[in-house]
Structures are given as structure tokens and as C-alpha cells.
């Protein structure tokens, strides 16, 4: 019993005894482990986290000192369109015999584009020619009878005065003469009708030849030999409604949809600078032709027609175009503007001033302080701090900071 009691007492905790001394070696081990975690985390970010570039949209800074004395007040996009474009068809329904055009071919006004089978038209013209010949023969017969009737009436007229024939015989001869005169007049009118019918039949033969209505370039070939063409849609997929489509390349212009909130900035005869999406480095001088006086309620836009002052084979219908509406300097001797223009959303406020994120080497952004100027439509002037041609971030994310790698995309 005594031994058991002694054993239980040895297991009790003496709370009045002082705590054992702390080992400094364990403290240093803990601090070293925490430092290793921090170092490993920094190294992991350096190796992996920094390679995760932030996707951004970029744009190039455009110089304002080009010497033109003009600045863009509005930028918009549109398409190249042709004022003269036609899908050429035949005037009659018929089978195509020959197609004489190909895509890209230039045709002149009146040039033959295709021919139809003329069998029916030729037969109709031959019939009209026969009817005209018959009418002319009838005229000759009636004129011969009229000549005899006139001579008979004249002879009886002399005899009735001498009381050698009765007046009834004379009056019968006169009536026969007058009837033959009417018959000749009818035959002549019938001949004229046959002549007109022949002219119509000849036009029918000419209608089997499809000609170009104006000079232009063929952009589509719609029919092949053996197919049926008709000026009216007959339904189904076996009847063509056209031979081909031609475009007058001298009538090309640009149609732009401008937001109705900005249409007040556009005026007729306003200078414009057009840039084809296919040739971004080619600036084409242009001019506003007219503002169409109606709005699209669905898109809240107004259509503007722009005339291109340059003619080039590279400009084709339906090409995408970006246009900049320019505002001329008010004074003839005005000095050219200094600085550059960038999208207004590229300028941000940092530390109480204007700043821009500039994309440098290896796609690392640099936060740069700039001196911003006035608004230029959807752009803004930068007086100093930025050089022409430098790439800036458009609408930078809120978390973007100096030295961040980015994945660029052109705006």
C-alpha cells in the first residue's frame, strides 16, 4: 500500500515550483524557420509570380507638330462604299449562252458581258418581218385596184354628163373608188403596225445581249453558261437574277456612323484623315461630303459621308476605315502644336499629378509624370514628358504599378 501511495504522489504536478529555464537554442531555430519561409516565398514570386503579365490595351503617342496646324476633334470608324454599284441582269428571261466577264476584270460602258440563247427572239423577229412583207403586198394590191376604180369613175363622170350612162352607175363607181381608197389607207396602217412589231422583235434580239451600264470593275460573277437568268426572282435555286456585279471605283467614298452626342463636332467640308485598317501607316486625305439628316434610333448614330481625295487600287469596297475629323487652325500663321496626343483614358492621376504608364523594354511599364493639355475629341494633348511613337497603356487597371510586366494589345 505504501509503495502505491508513493507512486501516485510522484505523478502529481507541483504548481508552486518555478518554471524551467527557456532554451535560447529553440528560439533561434524558430526564427530561422520563419525567415526561410519568407525567403522561399519571395523567391517563388520572383521566379513564377512576376512572369504572370497583366493584360492591357496600348496605343502609340502621335505627334502634334506635323506642321498641318490641325488637330483631331473626333475619331470614328466606318467602311468604304461605292456610290455606283450594280448587279447587271438581262431584261428578259432566257438561257445563258456565253459569259464574257471574270472577277477583277475592268469593263467599259456598253461592253458585252454575256449573251443569252437568241432562238426564240430570232423566230419572233422573223415572224414580224414576214407580217411586214404581207402588209406591204396588200398595199400594192389595193393601190392597183384603186387606180382602176379612179379611172372608171372619171370615165363614167364624163359619160353621165352626156346622158350616155345612168347616174346610178356613176355613183356606184365613185363609191367603189372611195372604198378602195379606205382599203389602201388601212393596208398602209397595217404595214406600219407590222413595221413597229419588227422593231420590237429586233429589240428582243438585242435584249439577249447583256451590256455594262457604266465603266467599272467586276467584283462578282453570278451566272454560268446553261443557267436560266431572269430579271425577276422566280423562286428556288435554279434561276439567277443577275450576270455579275460591277463597281465604279471612281465613286468610292467612306460612310461613318458618328454617335449623335458628338455629331455637333462634324461640319460639311470639314477636313478628314482616313486610315484603312489594312494599311495603318497610310494616311489618306479626305473631306466631309454631307451629314445624312436622320439618326439610327437603335444605334444612336448619324451617318456621315466622307469623300476620299486619293484614288488607289488598294482601296476597295467594304474595307474598314478609321477616320479622324480635323479642325483647322484659326490663324494662317499659327505655330504648329508641340507635344503628342494619346487616348484620354491613358492619363491617370497619381500623387496629385497627371501620369502615364509607358511600356518599355521587355514589356515592363514605367509610371511617368507628364504635363497634360486640353482635350482633342476622344484624345488628349500631352505637352511634355512623352515622346512621339512611345507606347502607352490605355485605361490602366487600378492595381497597375511601376515595374509591372504587361501583355500588350493594340487599341
UniProtKB/TrEMBL annotation:
Its main location: other. Residues 84-230 form the Multidrug resistance protein MdtA-like barrel-sandwich hybrid domain. Gene3D superfamilies: 2.40.30.170, 2.40.420.20, 2.40.50.100, Helix hairpin bin. Residues 1-21 are annotated as: Disordered. This is Efflux RND transporter periplasmic adaptor subunit. It is found in: Cell envelope. The keyword Mitochondrion does not apply. GO terms for cellular component: efflux pump complex. It comes from Thermomonas carbonis. Keywords: Coiled coil, Membrane, Transmembrane, Transmembrane helix, Transport. GO terms for molecular function: efflux transmembrane transporter activity. Belongs to the membrane fusion protein (MFP) (TC 8.A.1) family. Pfam families: Beta-barrel_RND_2, BSH_RND, RND-MFP_C. SUPFAM superfamilies: HlyD-like secretion proteins. InterPro entries: Beta-barrel_RND_2 (IPR058792), MdtA-like_BSH (IPR058625), MdtA-like_C (IPR058627), RND_pump_MFP (IPR006143). The keyword Transport applies. Residues 254-326 form the CusB-like beta-barrel domain. The chain crosses the membrane at residues 27-48.
Amino acid at each position: 500500500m505504501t509503495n502505491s501511495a508513493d507512486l501516485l504522489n510522484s505523478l502529481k504536478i507541483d504548481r508552486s515550483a518555478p518554471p524551467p529555464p527557456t532554451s535560447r537554442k529553440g528560439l533561434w531555430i524558430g526564427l530561422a524557420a520563419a525567415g526561410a519561409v519568407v525567403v522561399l516565398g519571395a523567391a517563388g514570386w520572383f521566379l513564377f509570380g512576376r512572369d504572370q503579365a497583366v493584360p492591357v490595351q496600348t496605343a502609340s503617342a502621335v505627334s502634334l507638330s506635323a506642321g498641318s496646324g490641325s488637330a483631331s476633334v473626333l475619331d470614328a470608324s466606318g467602311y468604304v462604299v461605292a456610290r455606283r454599284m450594280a448587279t447587271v441582269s438581262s431584261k428578259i428571261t432566257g438561257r445563258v449562252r456565253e459569259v464574257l466577264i471574270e472577277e477583277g476584270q475592268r469593263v467599259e460602258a456598253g461592253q458585252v458581258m454575256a449573251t443569252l440563247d437568241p432562238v426564240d427572239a430570232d423566230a419572233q423577229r422573223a415572224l414580224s418581218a414576214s407580217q411586214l412583207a404581207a402588209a406591204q403586198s396588200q398595199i400594192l394590191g389595193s393601190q392597183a385596184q384603186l387606180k382602176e376604180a379612179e379611172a372608171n369613175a372619171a370615165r363614167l363622170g364624163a359619160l353621165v354628163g352626156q346622158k350616155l350612162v345612168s347616174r346610178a352607175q356613176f355613183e356606184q363607181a365613185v363609191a367603189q373608188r372611195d372604198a378602195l381608197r379606205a382599203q389602201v389607207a388601212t393596208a398602209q396602217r397595217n404595214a406600219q403596225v407590222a413595221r413597229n412589231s419588227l422593231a420590237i422583235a429586233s429589240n428582243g434580239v438585242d435584249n439577249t445581249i447583256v451590256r455594262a451600264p457604266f465603266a467599272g470593275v467586276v467584283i462578282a460573277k453570278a451566272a454560268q453558261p446553261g443557267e436560266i437568268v431572269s430579271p425577276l426572282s422566280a423562286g428556288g435555286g435554279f434561276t439567277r437574277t443577275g450576270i455579275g456585279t460591277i463597281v465604279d471605283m471612281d465613286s468610292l467614298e467612306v460612310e461613318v456612323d458618328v454617335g449623335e452626342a458628338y455629331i455637333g463636332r462634324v461640319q460639311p467640308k470639314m477636313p478628314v484623315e482616313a486610315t484603312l485598317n489594312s494599311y495603318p501607316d497610310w494616311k489618306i486625305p479626305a473631306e466631309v461630303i454631307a451629314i445624312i439628316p436622320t439618326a439610327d434610333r437603335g444605334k444612336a448614330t448619324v451617318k456621315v459621308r466622307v469623300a476620299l481625295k486619293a484614288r488607289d487600287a488598294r482601296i476597295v469596297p467594304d474595307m474598314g476605315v478609321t477616320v479622324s475629323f480635323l479642325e483647322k487652325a484659326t490663324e494662317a500663321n499659327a505655330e504648329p502644336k508641340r507635344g503628342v496626343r494619346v487616348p484620354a483614358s491613358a492619363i491617370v492621376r497619381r500623387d496629385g499629378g497627371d501620369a502615364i504608364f509607358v511600356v518599355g523594354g521587355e514589356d515592363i511599364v514605367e509610371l511617368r509624370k507628364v504635363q497634360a493639355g486640353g482635350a482633342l475629341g476622344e484624345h488628349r494633348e500631352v505637352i511634355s514628358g512623352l515622346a512621339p511613337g512611345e507606347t502607352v497603356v490605355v485605361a490602366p487597371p487600378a492595381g497597375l504599378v511601376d515595374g509591372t510586366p504587361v501583355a500588350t494589345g493594340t487599341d
